[in-house]
Specification:
A two-stranded antiparallel sheet has the order 1-2. With about 90 residues, the protein is mainly alpha-helical. Strand 1 and strand 2 form a beta hairpin. It is about 50% helix and about 5% strand. It contains 3 helices and 2 strands, in the order H-H-E-E-H. The longest helix is centred in the first third of the chain and has 27 residues.
Amino acid sequence: MAKESMKAREVKRAKLVKKYAQKRANLLAEGDYEGLQRIPKNASPVRMHNRCSLTGRPKGYIRQFGISRIQFREMALKGLIPGVKKASW
């Protein structure tokens, strides 16, 4: 499990990105790079990091499902993810 502060930081970044998205787009279209310097660093979408929605794990993230590989495997073996089953050949 990730620390609650790390999860909260990512949520805060996501809110900032959403809040400043239109302003960033306008400043980039105008080529106003000084204006871009004045908005918060965390308003940049590049600074966001994908995390598992269940545990907050930052590595081994499966984008299609929004969870980490470990949680994906556990849920798939329990049959909680429809259409996914363990391969055997």
